[in-house]
Amino acid sequence: MSEKKHAVLSASSAHRWLACPPSALACARVKDTASEYAQQGTDAHSLCEYKLLKALGEKAKDPTENLTYFDEEMAGCTNAYAEFVQEQVETAKQKCADPIVLVEQQLDFSEYVPEGFGTGDCVIVGDGTLSVIDFKYGVGIVVEAERNPQMMCYALGALALFDGIYDIDTVSMTIFQPRRENVSTFAIPKEELLTWAKEVLAPTAELAAKGEGEYCAGEHCQFCKVKATCRKRAEYNLELARYDFEPPTNLEDAEIETVLARADELISWAGDVKEFALQAALQGKQWKDWKVVEGRSNRKYTNDDAVAQTVQNAGYDPYEHKVLGITAMTKLLGKGRFEELLGGLTYKPQGKPTLVPITDKRPVMNTAAEDFKED
């Protein structure tokens, strides 16, 4: 089996159902809808598998011509992944003459999660260490490996295959996310992972499989299928109403920080509800005080080539002329050639000040107040 068969308690959704056990069955009742982003990820994984197998000297069929979303960016990202895994294999060989390398390996962690299974992009087994590597093509959010439930479930599945055969004492989990320039690795002693599986994962999975436990709202709601209509999430966000939207100067510091902690989720929740209501209306739902109208739009050309030719025939230049952006120029020249030719002609301006939780890993920005502090 593979996780593509949509396990109710999938590893990829473990972050959510571990925090909110009843959401597992609630989401299972909602039909899956294919998205462009999901298909992009599927295409990228197919290419990763092919390139890695080829690099390891195994036979594999090139899937490129059958990929819907293949482009130069995908080619570059999958090349980088194959190179990264090869580096990890070479590192493993320094301790083990012949490490085991498995590509797109089916992993079964049903000892702890009912019908728990998934697919590990790459598993490397060497002396003392088992490594699980997961390729993420998404660009929306940075995914960290540290105590990542999906990765820990995969690691348990890999341990089920090799523990007892090999003397494993450490499990290493790596997320390779090239479009966010993110390579995140987390290592944990085997015994600590097994303790988490027995004391946290297994009992929570048992509740989730039965639809039991408490609903709990939080940032894990982001990928929940019922997030727009979930009453617990509504209650969680509407708690801000107790501040009566007073001017900030009337709020205590602690109250302002409470609002800040919820603001992004509140905005996201409101957007989810609006989108749900719109889609329901488009499917025939009659809301009492709301209706669907046609939004504003701008005129478009029916045929760009015909427009350009017509304008040229009239003696005008129909094209804009500007230097390619850095991303497009890098694609044109390649990273090495780009740095060679233009490395000295680029700079990185200071980013816009952004207020984030104290747990954010970025360094504190120097402000005007800091600059004027006396030593």
What does this structure look like?
This protein is α+β, with helices and mostly antiparallel strands and 375 residues long. The chain is 42% helix and 11% strand. The protein contains twelve helices and five strands. The protein has a five-stranded mixed beta sheet. Helix 3 crosses helix 4, helix 7 packs antiparallel against helix 8 and helix 10 crosses helix 11. The longest helix has 30 residues. The radius of gyration is 25 Å and the shape is globular. The N terminus is likely disordered.
Q: Please tell me what the overall shape is.
A: globular
N-to-C terminal Cα separation, in Å? 64 Å
> Any idea how many domains?
3
* CATH uppermost class of the largest domain: Alpha Beta
User: Which series of helices and strands comes N to C?
Assistant: HHHHEEEHEEHHHHHHH
List low-pLDDT spans: 1-5
Taking the sheet with the most strands, its summary is: 5 strands, mixed
Could you estimate the helical fraction of the residues in percent? 40-55%
CATH fold descriptor of the largest domain: Lambda Exonuclease, Chain A
